[in-house]
Design brief:
With 282 residues, the chain is of the alpha/beta class. Helix content is 35%, strand content 17%. Helix 1 packs parallel to helix 2 and helix 1 runs parallel beside helix 8. Bound molecules: (5S)-5-amino-3-OXO-hexanoic acid (KMH) and zinc ion.
């Protein structure tokens, strides 16, 4: 069992509108402030969906680069760009996000119903993302929405080799309407299907957030939290901000005697090189 807990913050996502959720960080300043606050509370990785100046999700490369650079300037967080985007995003634009040269990127392992929408992840796109990340030195986080997608992961690794860095890290995204439920039983069913030596995190969407977090901690797993997945803190109590969710996750991790990993410990775990400090001439 890993001794510490990797906490990934997913602050924004692509599903909620700023008008409906005013606390959602969408501007560069809001994302940077959120990232900084949440690093101080125990987050080590930032799972990032970028919004345009109109507050809507965008994969526009200059904008993506601008937000990545701003987060890097202000924090030590591992920057993990979403290649999932929004359900409406085409495959080529999702692949092009890798041009922003993040430390890491998400890689979804199968097509899944997403509420009334469909989140398309055909095999050829999975292979293309995996091999492009290998070539570019970007570490994937494999997003798994259903048990069968772990069989896809085994096939992917067998045919195309280990990811850059050599370590396999999986995020079980649970409770999506159309995917596996956010229950302890579903999480336990996934564990024997993880590749040997892999680590895993779990994310419970909506009201499954807490049960999934507790199940993941009890099984030696890591956590992803944030307003991408959770907008209600308790029944009838909207989430105040992302920091509230990270603080709860960090508190539970400490109670489990697996305190939050620092960003540099997270890099070691995930096989991401620690950035060398830039020497300032005197
Ligand atoms: N926005 C969802 C359709 C990812 O970031 O890789 C997909 C998603 C997964 O959020
Ligand atoms: Zn995402």
């Amino acid at each position: 069992m890993t001794s510490g807990t990797l906490i990934t913050l997913a602050p924004t996502g692509a599903e909620s509108a700023k008008v409906d959720v005013p606390a959602l960080p969408v501007t560069v300043e809001e994302v940077v402030a959120t990232a900084r606050d949440c690093q101080a509370l125990g987050a080590a990785v930032l799972h990032l969906h970028v919004r345009g100046t109109d507050t809507r999700p965008t994969l526009d490369l200059p904008r993506v680069r601008e937000v990545v650079a701003a987060v890097r300037e202000a924090t030590d967080l591992v920057v993990q760009l979403s290649t999932g985007g929004a359900v409406t995003d085409p495959a080529d634009a999702r692949l092009a996000v890798l041009d922003a040269a993040p430390d890491a990127a998400s890689l979804s392992l199968g097509t899944v119903n997403f509420g009334r929408d469909v989140f398309y992840n055909p095999w050829d796109l999975i292979v293309e993302l995996h091999t492009q990340m290998q070539q570019r030195g970007i570490v994937p986080e494999y997003e798994v929405f259903d048990l069968g997608q772990l069989a896809t992961l085994a096939r992917l690794l067998e045919r195309h080799g280990l990811p850059h860095g050599g370590h396999v890290h999986v995020d079980l995204v649970m409770g999506v309407p159309g995917g596996m439920p956010g229950t302890t039983a579903a999480l336990a069913a996934c564990l024997p299907a993880l590749p040997p030596g892999a680590t895993f995190a779990a994310t419970g969407v909506g009201r499954t957030s807490l049960p999934v977090m507790l199940a993941a901690l009890s099984a030696g797993g890591h956590l992803r939290v944030g307003m991408e997945d959770t907008l209600t803190y308790a029944p009838d109590e909207p989430v105040r901000d992302n920091a509230q969710l990270v603080a709860r996750a960090a508190g539970l991790a400490r109670i489990a005697q697996r305190p939050p990993l620092t960003p540099s410990e997270a890099r070691q775990l995930l096989g991401i090189p620690v950035p060398t400090p830039v020497e300032v001439p005197r």
